[in-house]
Amino acid sequence: MTIREVEHAITASAPAGAVYRLIAEVRNWPRIFPPTIYVDQVEQDGDSERIRIWATANGEAKNWTSRRTLDPEGLRITFRQEVSTPPVAAMGGTWIIEPLSPGESRVRLLHDYRAIGDDPEGLAWIEEAVDRNSRSELAALKQNVELAHAAEDVTFSFEDTVHVAGSAKDVYDFINEAGRWSERLPHVATVRLQEDTPGLQSLEMDTRAKDGSTHTTKSYRVTFPHQKIAYKQVTLPALMTLHTGYWTFADTADGVAASSQHTVTINTANIAKILGADATVEDAKTFVRDALSTNSRATLGHAKDYAEARA
Questions:
Q1: What contacts 116, CB < 8 A, 6 or more positions away?
Q2: What is the DSSP letter of 2?
Q3: What does each C-alpha distance from 100 to 13, 14, 43 come to in angstroms?
Q4: Hey, which of 88, 167, 253, 257 has its CA 20 to 30 A from 47?
Q5: Is the dihedral angle over the CA atoms 162, 165, 168, 172 positive or is it negative?
Q6: pLDDT, tens digit, for every residue of 218-275?
Q7: How confident is the model over 22-67, as pLDDT tens digits?
């Protein structure tokens, strides 16, 4: 049984406590780590928790459940995959954050792993995935910790909700069956939906803008039947450096509240190029919000019609 152990490290210009908090709070992960699509906290008991993670590895979407033990005083977080995805037989490790000075810290990321049947090809695949993801995670962590205060002003969230006199299942089905959106939604020209693993989707579509132009977007989606669909957009328009969100379907006394939530970080470097030399961050926020809300409200409106026709 071959167990491999590797360590990656990076120095961040941020206090160790701030770095620890960012890693400890899993809701931050899709914003901080490029491979992470969505993280769900399954259970929590004191300093230990179970989390379910959906992420891409070597261009493929995978998901696994991990147990984590948090040590806020020691600035350490240990993790162990409960059920790994082939070719991984077992995977675990530790985050260690070491203060170097009041404003600087060393972040160490340790992994130990083995491949199913000690398969050399499997081991090579895992080694490449761990190396690539660790480097990208640490580089993104460094960047995001260092830019945390600057990005606060350009990261924002918003939500649109419609009330539907129908069932949550029917509204969910409409959003889940995105492969049929080119037939059902006027603003979607073409769509390519893949779901090789149940509940984990790759969605690529060409969307028509108001001026008639089309643009291609790709997202990964995680589905929780009849309750929620979470997503992370991986091909981003010029005005965004981040776009995550979720659709939720909540039963009410007289039907369903169907909502679309977006979290966006503005790419300030492109504001002048896209919106003109005089445009501000607030102009960019308004522009992006209007564009995303227009599509979300259109989609929710068609989902409402679909569900109410079946009620």
A1: 86, 87, 88, 89, 122
A2: -
A3: 10, 10, 33
A4: 88
A5: negative
A6: 999 999 999 999 999 999 999 998 899 999 999 999 999 999 999 999 999 999 999 9
A7: 889 888 888 878 889 999 999 999 999 999 999 987 777 888 889 9
